[in-house]
Design brief:
Pantoate_ligase; 11 helices; 40% helix; cytoplasm; six-stranded parallel beta sheet; Rossmann-like_a/b/a_fold; alpha/beta; Rossmann fold; globular; Pantoate--beta-alanine Ligase, Chain: A,domain 2
Length: 283
């Protein structure tokens, strides 16, 4: 595994691979890797001849109210994970390499970036789309792998790729969870013992809504009310950012489940902001 730190090095490496007829898979991360990241990496390894893992805590994804410096960083541990999962290149640029001092160009999908997580983090997805497009251009990746937990991110990146004719294929892997159902996240370490004990109720309530849909319920307001009622009883330490039933592609709210939908949420458990979502299928 080679470690590269500049965009120029990465572009040269991937260009040479492509000249030699090699396919390229990309797995972008912000580090602090867990088993969910490992799943993405191993899947990427199976999809292409060469695997690029990026490890970059992207400052453009953080709002002024969020503490960029507090984000967990364990670079040596992350490098070991990438190597174990078969990475050919680990790309670890500095912020100054990815954003010039007078950087002024941003990629945004405004009709989607202000929904759901974007209501609380108005510039977050602009930062995500910009850095991911940079990585797509540098690597010329055939495929990029992301996790289902970040469903809104998936939807925006797919729309960006479609609108800008980006040939990179986006693959989604199922959310990796703890045995009690909590979605793996680098931010789980922020929780206290009591908060961690209650946190699995986030997913259990979403599953409850899924069971209601399987039983014939199709009214989004009814589903939402049932989840909120369950959380009020079993998740007293949680503070709701949002809970919505949306079209999986447009992220717009729906009233009835005439087709598969996503129930998505963000809940604050102390210092940790946890997101999750499930597919609601009435078939």
């Amino acid at each position: 595994m080679q470690k590269l730190t500049t965009p120029e090095e990465l572009a040269d490496m991937c260009r040479n691979w492509r000249k030699g007829g090699r396919s390229v898979a990309l797995v972008p991360t912000m580090g602090s890797c867990h088993a969910g990241h490992e799943d993405l990496m191993r899947h990427g390894r199976a999809l292409a001849d060469r695997l690029v893992i990026s490890l970059f805590v992207n400052p453009a994804q953080f709002s002024p109210a969020e503490d960029l410096q507090a984000y967990p960083r364990v670079p040596n541990q992350d490098a070991a994970v990438a190597k174990r999962c078969g990475a050919d290149v680990l790309f670890t640029p500095d912020s100054s390499a990815m954003y010039m001092p007078d950087h002024a160009t941003w990629v945004d999908v405004p009709e989607m970036s202000g929904l759901l997580c974007g209501m609380q983090r108005p510039t977050h997805f602009r930062g995500v789309c910009t850095v991911v497009l940079k990585l797509f251009l540098l690597t010329l990746a055939d495929v990029a792998v992301f996790g289902e937990k970040d469903w809104q991110q998936q939807a925006l990146l797919r729309r960006m790729a479609r609108d800008l004719n980006v040939p990179t294929r986006i693959e989604t892997r199922a959310t990796v969870r703890e045995p009690d159902g909590l979605a793996l996240s680098s931010r789980n370490v922020y929780m206290t013992v009591d908060e961690r004990a209650q946190a699995p109720e986030i997913y259990r309530a979403l599953q409850y809504a899924g069971d209601m849909v399987a039983g014939g319920e199709s009214n989004a307001a009814t589903l939402r009310a049932a989840v909120l009622r369950r959380w009020s009883e079993r998740l007293p330490l949680g503070r709701l950012d949002y809970l919505a039933v949306v079209n999986p592609e447009t992220l717009l709210p729906i009233e009835r489940l005439d087709a598969p939908a996503r129930m998505a949420c963000a809940v604050r458990m102390g210092m940790a902001r946890l997101i999750d979502n499930i597919l609601l299928r009435n078939e």
